Amino acid sequence: MGLITREKETAPCTVTISHRFEELSAHVRLNNGAVVNPGDTVEVQGPEIMAAYGEVVSEDRTAVITRASRLEQLWTRATGDLEFMELCEFSFSEEALQ
Amino acid sequence: MNAPTRDLAHSADAKTAEEGLAAENMSGPVDSKMATDVAMQNTLLTPRFYTTDFDELDAIDVSPVRAEWDQLIARMKADPNKGHFKKNADWDTVDWEGMDPKLRAEFIDFLISSCTAEFSGCVLYKEMKRRGKNEDVTGLFQLMARDEARHAGFINDALREAGIAVNLGFLTQAKKYTYFRPKFIYYATYLSEKIGYARYITIYRHLEAHPEKRFHPIFKWFREWCNDEFSHGEAFALLMRTDPKITQSWQNKLWIKFFLTAVFSTMWVRDHQRPAFHEALDVDPAWYGQEVFRKTSEISKQVFPLTLDIDNPRWRRGLDRLDRANREIAAAKRQGGVRGKLRQWAGSAKAGAAFLGLLSIPSQRNEVPDTSRLEPAY
């Protein structure tokens, strides 16, 4: 890993979407054991994946992982905590409605 | 990919704009405004993605709280709420058309925000389950992911009734992973689950006494829903009790005070931005806020070594100052331009000062009991 350079790699992945009454969820699993670290970016390739209501869809795709540089990783580790409010649920969005 | 147009009862089931327009609920003259509306009523869910120190999570040893832990996990596995999230005769028809547009906008914001929160919780818990190796911990996160996905599905259904479809397009967009230390996840999610319980149960009890104010059937499901939130909070309380340092060191006490103040004051400000919602329920947001803080404080005595002094006169004054500053910021954003920007900065400075004022109110010490297990009692 470079101090300021980013590297890209690809990983096979499976995207699973459940769009049902009893479960609404969506997950991306990297199938080669690649580990996502702070500051890394993951992008699943290909067209948008849709599941109609009532369906569970599972598709194998390729994901591009853009590795954060060493500096970026340190920065994300140091500052990520400050975004903790995103973990909290407040029932309403931040913006005032007009 | 061009999917053939199917016959649909509702545009919320549509995969494409064409299908949406062809759906039964869209019969009647279609103009370009309606076509835009169909496209716009596709709400993009935007969950965030996090990573944490998975080695630290794996190192958790639940032995000090083993008996309580096993009991809680067994109950969650038994899944007493499984049959609850079903629509039955209690789900009466909603008059979306007749709803005051302001109330409708605020209520839909409520549904979308709640759905996103449940969905994000599910993503986070599932990720923790997948990356962890400690079976106690991964087992817990699996169960919590199950509940959150179930809640998200239930709210999604209510949204679909209002003609709004969630869009999961984020899956194929670039996602940046941010980082939280495990203890920040404990504090934030513990508080989030417990305050969620207090928020839902307070509304539920209010509507029990005033059923005529219940403008949507989803409120009838709040009690069982919040019991799930309650038990998730119990699990995080136990996780924090596995290591006394997490709550007892002086730095961490400061963090806890900071989290409590930040979460309570954010809730206050956001609720006050939704007057139509609270008016329709006939709930005074100030009364509601203090009531929720009181319940959350009482519950959090199970694990936090301090509570906020919410009866201190400075508390309410500080919240009001924060609320005013927030309104100024919103007005300045609408104004735009250089003057707007300057007003926005001035508002932010006032909000920061108000928050520091709240933070400087001395907290009340709490002796944490030997066992933490609580039952939902409100």
From TrEMBL, chain A:
<protein>
    <submittedName>
        <fullName>Uncharacterized protein</fullName>
    </submittedName>
</protein>
Automatic annotation (TrEMBL), chain B:
<dbReference type="GO" id="GO:0005506">
    <property type="term" value="F:iron ion binding"/>
</dbReference>
<keyword id="KW-0479">Metal-binding</keyword>
<comment type="pathway">
    <text>Porphyrin-containing compound metabolism; bacteriochlorophyll biosynthesis (light-independent).</text>
</comment>
<dbReference type="GO" id="GO:0048529">
    <property type="term" value="F:magnesium-protoporphyrin IX monomethyl ester (oxidative) cyclase activity"/>
</dbReference>
<keyword id="KW-0521">NADP</keyword>
<feature type="domain" description="Rubrerythrin diiron-binding">
    <location>
        <begin position="109"/>
        <end position="239"/>
    </location>
</feature>
<dbReference type="InterPro" id="IPR008434">
    <property type="entry name" value="AcsF"/>
</dbReference>
<keyword id="KW-0149">Chlorophyll biosynthesis</keyword>
<comment type="similarity">
    <text>Belongs to the AcsF family.</text>
</comment>
<protein>
    <recommendedName>
        <fullName>Aerobic magnesium-protoporphyrin IX monomethyl ester [oxidative] cyclase</fullName>
        <ecNumber>1.14.13.81</ecNumber>
    </recommendedName>
</protein>
<keyword id="KW-0408">Iron</keyword>
<dbReference type="InterPro" id="IPR009078">
    <property type="entry name" value="Ferritin-like_SF"/>
</dbReference>
<dbReference type="Pfam" id="PF02915">
    <property type="entry name" value="Rubrerythrin"/>
</dbReference>
<comment type="pathway">
    <text>Porphyrin-containing compound metabolism; chlorophyll biosynthesis.</text>
</comment>
<keyword id="KW-0560">Oxidoreductase</keyword>
<dbReference type="InterPro" id="IPR003251">
    <property type="entry name" value="Rr_diiron-bd_dom"/>
</dbReference>
<keyword id="KW-0077">Bacteriochlorophyll biosynthesis</keyword>
<dbReference type="GO" id="GO:0015979">
    <property type="term" value="P:photosynthesis"/>
</dbReference>
<keyword id="KW-0602">Photosynthesis</keyword>
<dbReference type="GO" id="GO:0036070">
    <property type="term" value="P:light-independent bacteriochlorophyll biosynthetic process"/>
</dbReference>
<comment type="function">
    <text>Catalyzes the formation of the isocyclic ring in chlorophyll biosynthesis. Mediates the cyclase reaction, which results in the formation of divinylprotochlorophyllide (Pchlide) characteristic of all chlorophylls from magnesium-protoporphyrin IX 13-monomethyl ester (MgPMME).</text>
</comment>
